[in-house]
Structure formats: structure tokens, C-alpha cells
Amino acid sequence: NAGVTQTPKFQVLKTGQSMTLQCAQDMNHNSMYWYRQDPGMGLRLIYYSASEGTTDKGEVPNGYNVSRLNKREFSLRLESAAPSQTSVYFCASSHTGPSTNTGELFFGEGSRLTVL
Amino acid sequence: KDQVFQPSTVASSEGAVVEIFCNHSVSNAYNFFWYLHFPGCAPRLLVKGSKPSQQGRYNMTYERFSSSLLILQVREADAAVYYCACASNTGKLIFGQGTTLQVKP
Lengths: 116, 105
Hints:
The complex is a heterodimer.
Chain A: E1 4-7, E2 10-13, E3 19-25, E4 31-38, E5 42-49, E6 56-57, E7 65-68, E8 74-78, E9 87-94, E10 106-107, E11 111-115
Parallel strand pairs in A: 2-11
Antiparallel strand pairs in A: 1-3, 3-8, 4-5, 4-9, 5-6, 7-8, 9-10, 9-11
Chain B: E1 4-5, E2 9-13, E3 18-24, E4 32-37, E5 44-49, E6 53-55, E7 58-60, E8 66-71, E9 81-87, E10 93-95, E11 99-104
Parallel strand pairs in B: 2-11
Antiparallel strand pairs in B: 1-3, 3-8, 4-5, 4-9, 6-7, 7-8, 9-10, 9-11
């Protein structure tokens, strides 16, 4: 029962390098999300996808791009990593979209990214 | 600005009832959501709603702009980060900073 799977779990980058965080869910959920978790800041929404083929900015989208490859997969790309992007990144999915306000998100275990 | 507020740390002793308080300034938010996060694991939903509710040892109180999570008979294994969240008028969840629960034996 995999749920939401993120890869990689750990990554160290140098400033200016690029990388993609991968996320896949096997629950046939329509909506997917990327959050970042920083000490004292809680979970902040970077981007979300309410359905296959659509993506929208969240609270902190600068420096990131996303791709909803299909219904299962939602990737997050850092084109030119900066030390301010050092964080733990969480992918999540939900059956219903953001507008229906049900609030049950299913999270992955997180990806810890360090940018030197 | 839409925000959710909760204490950064709460300490308790084993066997006690611990309360974690949350309030918000989120426009048109009516539901609270409480998530549990053990570092290194996936956060998961504990309890949610727009009225008082209970799931096992977890009770959620409800007022229009505030909620408390009550954990009954708290154990050392309950030491974790607890997130309170509200849904904005666009439906997206806005999380508080998280409350680290410390449990003394």
C-alpha cells in the first residue's frame, strides 16, 4: 500500500544546480500538492494541481516549476537552486480538489534538500 | 493576511491530558484540521471538522475562530509535531507553524 511516494529522500546540491523532485500516488486522486517545511514556518504551499493538466501557484512559488505528468505523477523542479531553498519538501494528494474544502491530504514522507 | 496560529512548543507529563490551542485569521474558514507529524514520516490527518469531534484519544474542540486538540492519557510515543490547518476561501489548506509536543515520563 504505497500511497504517496517521493524521490529522492535526501539530496545535496550546489548553488545554481538544477534538480527535480518526483512524486507519485497510487490512490487515483485528482489533486496533488507540493509543500515545503521550514522551522517555525509550518507547511507552505508551493504549487498545486487540482486535476490532470492543470497547475497553479501556491503561497511560495518563486524559484520552482512543476509538471503534472499524468494523474499519478507531479514533479517539482528547481532550475537554479539557492541556499534559501534548503528545506524539507512534501508531496501530497487528495481525492477532491482544493475548492471542495475537505482537507484530507495524504502526504509522502518528505525529501530533505540541502543547497550549499 | 490568512494565517493560522499555534504555540511552538507544549510540554506535558505522561498520563495527563494535553491541550494544543489554535486560532486563525483565515477569511471564510469554517473547518479545522489537525495533522500529526513524526519527523521522517508522512504527516497524517488526525481529526477535522466544524464541530467538536473525537477520534480515539484525540478530541477536537471547535469555536468559529479557534480550536484545541486534546490528547487524552498522553504517552511518550505521542511526542511529535502537531499541525493545525484551516481551509481558505479557495479551498487550499493553510497550516500553522506546528506545535512540538514534549512528553516527560
